[in-house]
Amino acid sequence: MTGPEPAPYRLSDGERDEALESLRTAFQEGRLTVDEHEERSTAALHAVTGQDLVPLFGDLPPHLHPASLGASGARPGESAPAGGGEGPVDLAETGRSVEKKKKKKDDDNLPSVLGWGGFLLFVWGVPTFISGSVTAISIFLGFFCLMVVPGLITALARGRRRGGGRDEIAGG
Question: Which of 2, 3, 22, 80 is most solvent-facing, going by the fewest CB within 10 Å?
Answer without folding.
Answer: 2
